[in-house]
Amino acid sequence: MTDWATAGCAALFVAILALSGYWDPTIRTLHVFEAVPYGLAGLLCLRQSTFGYALAAAGGAFWLWCAGFLTTFVRNGFERLGALVRTGSVDRIDVLIAAPAAFATAGLVVFSVAGYVRRQNKSGRDIVAIASAFVAVPLFFLAIFKAFAPRYLAMFNGILW
Question: What is the DSSP letter of 72?
């Protein structure tokens, strides 16, 4: 059940990336590349892969950290959701999607960790897969930000350089 929930969260997040890319052509290529680890994580979790669980947790946590703590995207998305509930309309649907994106990425973290915990055949070597994912995911995202949307690197000012 948790593996399917992880895959569902990954699919929802990839759909949100696609929708966002549809609305903003300047980030389409970035979002195509960004979708790769999330889609892969969902598929690998269905196969009960340690690396899949780690990739889902690392990807979800990294996106939440960036969008929720390094920028105001998640907060602004929930503000738009509140306005939608109160008034029945929203002024920036492109920002509103941050709310379901936050739920999807949080689900990736929660369900992948739960899936790994429930797994029967854990081993000491799992730490290598987990550590690899938590190193590879940020490096991958930094690389695609640099290649396709360098403006996003500004959120790391004071943290990395």
Answer: S
Q: Quote the tokens at residue 101.
A: 């994106």
Distance, in Å, from the CA atom of 86 to the CA atom of 107, rounded to the nearest integer, reads 26
- End-to-end Cα spacing for the chain: 42
Cα 66 to Cα 114: distance, rounded to the nearest angstrom:
23
How many Å is the maximal CA-CA distance in the chain?
A: 53
77-91 burial: b if 16+ Cβ within 10 Å, else e: bbbbbeeeeeeeebe
Residue with tokens 């990336």, as numbered in its chain: 17
- The predicted-structure confidence for 106-126, as pLDDT tens digits, reads as follows 999 999 999 999 999 999 999
Q: How far apart are CA 8 and CA 15, in angstroms?
A: 10
Task: Please tell me whether residue 92 adopts helix, strand or coil conformation.
Answer: coil
Residues in Cβ contact with 54 at an 8 Å cutoff, skipping those fewer than 6 apart: 112, 116, 129, 130, 132, 133, 134
- Predicted structure pTM score: 0.94
